[in-house]
Amino acid sequence: MRIMICEDAVLLREGLVRLLDDAGHTVVAALPDASGLMAAVAEDAPDLLILDVRLPPTFTDEGIRAALAVRAANPNMAILVLSQYVEERYATELITANSAGLGYLLKDRVADVTEFLESAANVAGGATVLDPEVVAQLLSRRRRDARLERLTERERDVLALMAQGKSNSAIAAALFISEGSVEKHISALFTKLDLETSASDNRRVLAVLTHLGADSGATS
User: Fold this and answer.
1) Most confident of the ranges 4-13, 95-104, 210-219
2) Which domains does the chain have, with CATH numbers?
């Protein structure tokens, strides 16, 4: 897999390069800021872009704006965003802006090499992968939504695991239930959330996350 990194912290940037190289991937570029990102993406055509939420010069939203610009120019570009903390507004902006092939992880997750590499591969493959802490905050924020209140506790558990990019079999294993039960819970929660079901797990996850990430003023 061809990967591009945009991260201002030298140690993390170089650590990611070594980690990905050791895993057999090719890092086509490792940039310290987003100033030359669009040109680099156009020239190197990476399969996955990994970038920080906060980049120079202001360390506010440069990374998110760069990610949105890249997706606007390259709708199929897979992007994995890394953040020091859960930045709900930025996560919501990304989630609602485009479709699959998107990840938002806390930087602490990089320490778990196996999990991080799996997440990167899943995002590059078109999946939507969110950090559990991001999922928890989005769920908590929309707790007052009448549709969300229709869900049972088990359906909430299934929804949270779906949002983390888990397959039905992985959800079943995590909750110690059968895959058939997982399928029934998914069908039920989509009905209760007034969301159209789809044969694609990634599209269903995106639909749920779009609902959870919508502005609090959205129509209920």
Assistant:
1) 4-13
2) 2-130 (3.40.50.2300), 142-213 (1.10.10.10)
